[in-house]
Amino acid sequence: MTPIAITLVLIALQVSVGHSEKPPNFIVILLDDLDETQRSTVGDSSFPLAPSHARHAGVTFTNHFVSTPICCPSRVNLLRGQYSHNTNFTDVLGPHGGYAKFKALGLDRDWLPGWLQAAGYSTLYTGKFIVDYTIRNHRPPPAGWTAFDALVHPFTFEYYCPAFALDGGPPAMYPAQYVTDVVGAKARALLRSAAADAAVSGRPFYLQVAPPAPHHSMHYDYNATGGLRARHWYPPVPAERHWEAFSGAALPRPASFNPRNLWGKPAWVRGLERLTPGNVTFLEEVFRLRLRSLLAVDELVAGIMSDLEALGLTGSTYVLFTSDNGYHEGAHRQGSGKTTAYEEDIRVPLLVAGPGLRPGSVITSTTQHVDLAPTLLALAGRCGGAGAGAVRCGGVRYGGGGGLMPTGYDWGTQARGPPRDELLAEFWGVWDDESIHSHAPYFNNTWKAVRVLRNDRSEAYKYVLHCSGDYELYDLVRDPHETTNLLASAAAAGMRRRLDALLAVLAVCRGRACVRPFEVLHPDGSVSDLWAAMDEQYDGVYGGITPFRFGRCLPYQDAENELSDFR
What we know:
alpha+beta, ten-stranded mixed sheet, four-stranded antiparallel sheet, 23 strands, disordered N terminus
């Protein structure tokens, strides 16, 4: 997404980009709905070890975020290095998301697999792509892949009856076979094939592996003419061999869990009834089923890491482990789901193993999914630089905007601070409870948020604007579970003016503005972060900026409805 973001991994590696004789290989393991805040990724005696193979071998990023907390837009953001407001791909299904819109927008004509292919890579995919990649529309497959063996709807979330389409061919069903095991077998076969090809041709590879765990199981009923009659949500289904695991695991209950008081929250959140004891018991079991479903993922990761060692590729392959969005269970009286601006939904795990990594390192700097594509291109030695929504590799600029990264560029190293101080999150559409069906859907869940983290990590804030006109401001250091809305305090007025201006830039940003928003607000370079902007000498500057606002609540992006002085 940006030249600044390219150094995401370099802050941990302290390696030079583009100086090795051979470009590295990449394996990206992308899960579905895996949380970071409710401890589903903690590798100890009480929780699954799914990421532990990467955690013990490399770096853990503790402040990694998605920008749109729902699967399909987030997956596109990762592979394009763009925010959803840049792609206008904002939903799971049509007309504002879905595979037809994905192809119509041409999003697969300019994205990571194509950029890597142009750099001489083999590009391979297996597992879940997007929900609306179906048995009816899977031809042609997305461009840019040497081999593309993806799950097809309506069998994507049928844990014991998955179906795949290889390179757009006829769907092949795997009845009575566990989906994560099938994805793992396909991933390892693709890995061995890529290794054999590399031994002959010298061609490096990019392999993306996307098991659907721990997403809820979904079953669809159709009528005789093929029309959808009903959709049913169920908790994830573990592999049969793991059904008895974690029987004593307890769902974490932080301060945000089923609180008695929701004062300061948006009206629709305040309107949620407290979870009943029966609701909580059910969420406990959902939590355990999620943990159990991750044990097969653990085996998948172990198999890939074992194969890398056997093939002699551990010294030339980076392995990334992450999720398309976070997940909440019981937070702020909500049952199960995502799509909110709260930490449970936007914070995700990121673990990176590979050459040059310091095993066991922990990086607390702020990073986002939109940083991953340009980071991999930089590690491949192909980037001269990148702009928001653009990368420049091998002298060719992909996407729009941006400039070249200077020779010797070291922004983001430990001596220079984190790669970014602020980030944007955004969502359009409906909030739906995947487990507590007595909670009615909320259809005006459209919002934009800005999250800021001070260089020394001593202060962090999140500011959320809802299309309903509700605002939220949280001190994430003193109130990490977001229980106290600071906007009730008059003392927050000065900070709110700064955050309003910052959101006005980020909500519509393109290019460098997406990671250097204060350059837009202070072109003379006098201010580079929120804390410098808080100086009273700038009160007049921020008092004169019109805050970003929504004209009305819409479940999709409409530029005329999203009002900013900086569009």
